[in-house]
Amino acid sequence: MSLFEKCLDYVEVTLPNEKIYKVVRGKILRSGNNAIRGVNKNIDENYTINYSPESGINEDIIKII
Q: Angle of helix 2-14 relative to helix 18-46, nearest 10 degrees?
């Protein structure tokens, strides 16, 4: 998400007015969200993700099989 925020920060200072910025902002967010959905769909369809906490480690390890 920080990628979208950074892009929108740059776009905001380069466009001449707020009306144009809002149109571009919508397109950037829609495109980015569609890309995220595509990645999630690909993972769901092609991979099995198992969560297995290892003993002695204070974080979860995600293994993609």
A: 160
